[in-house]
Every structure is written in C-alpha cells, then in structure tokens.
Amino acid sequence: MTKEGRDTFLRGYAAIFATVLIWSTPSLFQFYLNQFYDPWAQNFYRYSVACLAVLPFMLYRFRQSGPKIDRRIFLACLIPALPNVVHQISQNVALFHMGPGVYAIFIRSSVIITTLLALIFFPEERWIIRQWQFQIGTLLGLAGAVGVLWFQPGTEGGPIAWRGIAIAFTASFCWALYSVLVKRPSARLGPVRSFGLISIITSALLLPLTLAFGNIATPLQAGARVNIILIISAVTCISLAHVLYYVAIRKVGVALSQTLQLLCPAGALGLSALFFGERLTNAQLWSAAILLLGAFLAMRVKTTAEPTAA
Questions:
Q1: For the chain, what is the largest distance between any 2 Cα atoms, rounded to a whole number of angstroms?
Q2: What are the φ and ψ backbone dihedral angles of 304, each rounded to 5 degrees?
Q3: Is the dihedral of CA 293, 170, 114, 179 positive or negative?
Q4: C-alpha count within 13 angstroms, C-beta hemisphere, residue 31
Q5: Phi, then psi, of 253 in degrees rounded to 5
Q6: What single string gives the DSSP state of each residue in 109-164?
Q7: Which pTM value belongs to this model?
Q8: Among 18, 99, 132, 262, which is disulfide-ready with 295 (CB 3.0 to 4.6 Å)?
Q9: What gap in Å lies between CA 175 and CA 72, rounded to an integer?
Q10: Could you tell me how far CA 276 lies from the centroid of its own chain?
Q11: Under a CB-based contact definition with an 8 Å cutoff, are residues 268 and 100 in contact?
C-alpha cells in the first residue's frame, strides 16, 4: 500500500472510531425521549434539527464544486432515505420492548446483513469479506448480539415478546440496507452534501407520517430541557456522526465500517447502567464479550487493497 493509501486508510479508521464514540449514545437519548415524544415526532424533529445543522455546509459545498442537484442525484439519495425512515421509526418502537444497552447490542446484528449485501452489491469489497478474520469476527459478533437478546428478560420478567424482536430485527435490516445504499451517493457527492440531501429527504418523508400518526405539537408540550436534549442528540448522533460515517465508508468500505460499530454497545451498556440502572445477566455479559472479540478479529483484516480506488 502506498503512503497516500495508508494515510487514507488511517483517516478512515479515525472516522470510524469517532462514530463508535458518538453512536454509543443514540439509544440512550431515544430511550429517554420516548417518555415525552412519540416515535414519529421524535424522529421528525431530530432529523429536522440535524438537517438544519448541516444545511449551511451542504450549500457551501454545492457552491464550491461537484455536481449540481439534478433528478439523478435526487433519486440516488431518495433510495437510501427510504430504509432510513423505517429504521428510525422501528428503533424507537423497539426501545419500548428492551433497554437501550440491549438494543445497542442487538442492532449490531446488522453487521452480518451488511456483509451479505456488500458481497452482492460491491465486488470491490470482497477482498475484505474473504479474509478469515473478518468472517469469524462477524459470526462471533452476531452470535454475541443474539445471546444478549436471548437472555434478556422482558418488561414482565419473561422473555422479550416476539413482536419486540421482530421490530428490532426490522430496524437492524433497514440500517444494513441504508448503509449499503448510501455508498454510491456518498462517493459521488461527498459526505457533507450526500448526508445533507438525504437528511432533507428523510425529514420530508417523516413529516406526513408525523402529521398522520404522531403529535406535531410535542415540542410545545415537552419543555425546554427535553427539547435541548433532543437538539444535542440530533446534532451529534445524526449530523456529525453520519458525516463521519460517510467518510469512513468512502475510505475503508461499507463492510469494515459497519463491523467496527460492534464496539458501540460497550459504551452504551456502561452509560445505560449509569443513567437508567440497566443490568445484564452473566450470560449476557459473556455474550457481550464474544461480540467484542468478534469486533477485534474484524479489525485485524489485512489492508492489502484500497477500497477508495474502486
């Protein structure tokens, strides 16, 4: 690998670990906000705030260089926005069935789905998927995520209802699909412009859903403290984290970017225990350890190819 390629890959890793740090917190913000916002309103306002935060930078980028917004670019951003809307809603609903720490672990099951989708859509990433460290790491990560959910008691003391599991799986699948579909517009427009346009489309799609099923007046009823927390979560967990995630996808590829997100549950579990008193059983802790081992193995892939070249 050339020096330029090595620097590019290191920047990709820096972007990944920044998103890991930030994305240890979304389920905690959403779990807290579920007390005041319905899932439709919460996602509409969070994405609207995130859109406004990145809008000046997006407009500046479009004025400076790169392709102008046309029908083809709009459609390229609309396609990943559709599963993104489903993911945003379903993850909020899933948090009514399980704690934020457990959800943060289970959503990592999207790794195996992303791997399969990347294998189908992006031949340039097969050099990563073929490596045994990546394969074993992904399987261990998935097994750990399933184990944490399997041994988690539900709100009534028994196992989590199948409905909650189905909703969580829907969120996981749609996140994987979004991660794969966003690669093309990100490569063409860059992280700021692509996320800015996708956030506008996502907010526009969430508005009629909120009007139909949610309470559009929630911010007036929730209070200033709750609204400030919503704004903080939107700017950090959506705007900043998504731009960094797009950078990581461009530098090191979809599959590796998604697999390293297996590290997020460690931070989420610690914060959830601190703020919400969530505790894991011994079986869940062992499952979490298997998950993190899988993430470590996936990080050991040999960087003999440069995904950005493709």
A1: 57
A2: -90, -5
A3: negative
A4: 23
A5: 100, 165
A6: GHHHHHHHHHHHH-GGGHHHHTSHHHHHHHHHHHHHHHHHHHT-B-TTSSBPPHHH
A7: 0.76
A8: 262
A9: 23
A10: 22
A11: yes
User: How does pLDDT run across 17-72, given as a tens digit for each residue?
Assistant: 888 888 888 889 999 999 999 999 999 999 999 889 888 888 877 777 666 777 88
CA separation for the pair 250, 108 (Å, rounded): 20
Distance in angstroms (rounded) separating the CA atoms of residues 87 and 43: 10
Phi-psi region of 214 (alpha: psi -120 to 50; beta: other; left: phi over 0): beta
Helices (H), the chain: 3-22, 26-33, 39-64, 71-94, 100-106, 110-121, 126-129, 132-150, 162-181, 183-189, 191-213, 218-222, 224-233, 241-252, 254-259, 264-276, 282-299
Contact 214, 154 (CB under 8 A): no
CA angle 89, 181, 125 (to 5 degrees): 130
Q: Any residues with CB less than 8 A from the CB of 259 and at least 6 apart, and which?
A: 111, 114, 115, 134, 137, 138, 141, 295, 298, 299
Please return the burial class of 219, using the count of CB atoms within 10 Å of its CB with bins 0-12, 13-18 and 19+: middle
Residue 12, phi then psi, degrees to nearest 5: -65, -45
The number of C-alpha atoms within 13 Å of 249 and in the hemisphere containing its C-beta is 29
* C-alpha distance from residue 200 to each of 5, 16, 53, 259 (Å): 33, 24, 11, 27
